[in-house]
Amino acid sequence: MTLPEHPIETPPRAPSPVHGFGTLAVHAGSPHDPVTGAVIEPISLSTTFAQTSVGKPVGLYEYSRSSNPNRDNFEKAVAALEHARYALAFSSGSATTANVLQSLAQGSHVISVSDVYGGTHRYFTKVALTHNVHVTFTPNIGDSIADLIRPETKLIWIESPSNPTLSLVDIRKVATIAHQHGILVVVDNTFLSPYVQNPLDHGADIVVHSVTKYINGHSDVVMGAAAFNSTDIYERLSFLQNAIGAIPSAFDAWLAHRGLKTLHLRAREATKNATGVATALEASPLVISVNYPGLPSHPQYSIAQKQHRDGMGGGMLSFRIQGGHEAAERFCQATKIFTLAESLGGIESLVEVPSAMTHAGIAKEAREASGVFDDLVRVSCGIEDEADLVADVLQALEKAAAEPKVSSGLKVAENGRDHA
Ligand SMILES: *Cc1c(COP(=O)(O)O)cnc(C)c1O
After folding, report:
1. Among 61, 65, 72, 399, which one carries the catalytic annotation?
2. Does 346 sit in the ligand 1 pocket, CB within 6 Å?
3. Is 310 a catalytic residue?
4. Rounded Cα–Cα distance for residues 190 and 168 (Å)
5. 10 inside domain
6. What is the pTM of this model?
7. In terms of C-beta density within 10 A (0-12 exposed, 13-18 middle, 19 or more buried), how is residue 177 classed?
8. What is the CATH number for 320?
9. b vs e for 242-258, b when ≥16 Cβ sit within 10 Å of the residue's Cβ?
10. Does residue 12 form part of some domain?
11. Range of 157's domain?
């Protein structure tokens, strides 16, 4: 099944929620167990469900790949938080991307921001091509999109903020042009979470998440989700979800749903912490520059102001350190609260050096063209205390500036590995 040729009568929107985000996070998709009254849903491990006569299941379920109570409830919660009529959960963020791309007809053309997530770039260039879907990358989609559209362009792929330089895209501006040509707009909203940004409200047709990051938020589940308003998209993507079978387990859906219930609290703390850390870094003579959408110095600060909840910057930032790549490595080894690791969006704060870790697979020239210099450090702020995180960053900067070259060297990620 493929996405429709000219899909863009705007589908009806989800009804405006009566309740605020926190109330929805706690209650959407969380019915009490009708039999026991349990306030928290049980984990439904059964793979199959009894039928009273042939083709007449007792309840809503037949077979767990097709649908499962825990996945259903999680999907309802994600839909509520993204102001969507529908959501679907997948086994990973990458499987979500694959399902969306798989829904395009052979010969389709896609336009993508160039500093897209590494795994998405790999899927676009190494997998989509094999069913004859071609992707054009652009560093400045807001201005270049009109020139890049071809008759066979079917999809625009946006990440805002981008990884790891945190540059923003005006979603409304891109969606307005795309819709004039009958093109769907997808936004990967992983870096901000639905608490900080709701792309469907700015004209996007599909929002995707690596649930692995903020939505689950506890660094213990790999999962993905897509949310949208169109019944047509729902029919096509749920058909593929079942046909391809890249579905999360009941246990993972249950865990991710538990994580989602505190998303608003975590996202607020992470933003507060990142704002404190970014401000301290910007004031330090040991720092060349800071990329954080919550700082007035950010080149697209005005986009953050109109597109993010209360202009929040989110929990992610990156900065260039004085002293080159060695100083960046020393910094990441000198932090005591921030753990040196890939991934993001969990309760714990993390640091990494993109040029040697998450983005090592990209050629140096292409990397630097999008601002990923060897001295760039990426920071994911967790929900520890702001004062402790700021103090940790400042002491690590001093150490990185003072100490001689480290000998160990960070591991260099192999090409083709997963990079979060
Ligand atoms: C991690 C990530 C993905 C991929 O998600 P997985 O759950 O690791 O498959 C996609 N997009 C962004 C922005 C990510 O950070």
Report:
1. 65
2. no
3. no
4. 13
5. no
6. 0.93
7. middle
8. 3.90.1150.10
9. eeeebbbbbebbbbbbb
10. no
11. 21-260
Closest Cα partner for 345 from 183, 236, 226, 192? 192
Domain membership flag for residue 11? no
3-state secondary structure of 149: coil
Residues 114 and 130 in one domain: yes
250 and 272 in a single domain? The answer is: no
Pairing between β-strand 224-228 and β-strand 287-291 as defined by DSSP bridges: unpaired
Tell me, yes or no, whether 191 and 156 share the same domain: yes
> Cα dihedral angle (366, 305, 313, 93), rounded to 10 degrees?
-60
Q: Is 163 in the pocket of ligand 1 (CB under 6 A)?
A: yes
Domain annotation covers residue 1 = no
Outline where DSSP puts E strands in 65-193: 86-90, 109-113, 134-138, 153-159, 184-188
Q: Is 117 a catalytic residue?
A: yes
Q: How far apart are CA 314 and CA 167, in angstroms?
A: 13
Active-site residue (options: 170, 188, 374, 375): 188
pLDDT values of the chain reduced to their tens digit, one per residue, 420 residues? 454 444 455 677 766 667 999 999 999 999 998 889 999 999 999 999 999 999 999 999 999 999 999 999 999 999 999 999 999 999 999 999 999 999 999 999 999 998 889 899 999 999 999 989 999 999 999 999 999 999 999 999 999 999 999 999 999 999 999 999 999 999 999 999 999 999 999 999 999 999 999 999 999 999 999 999 999 999 999 999 999 999 999 999 999 999 999 999 999 999 999 999 999 999 999 999 999 999 999 999 999 999 999 999 999 999 999 999 999 999 999 999 999 999 999 999 999 999 999 888 888 988 898 899 999 999 999 999 999 999 999 999 999 998 665 555 454 444 444 455
Token pair for 104:
């395009």
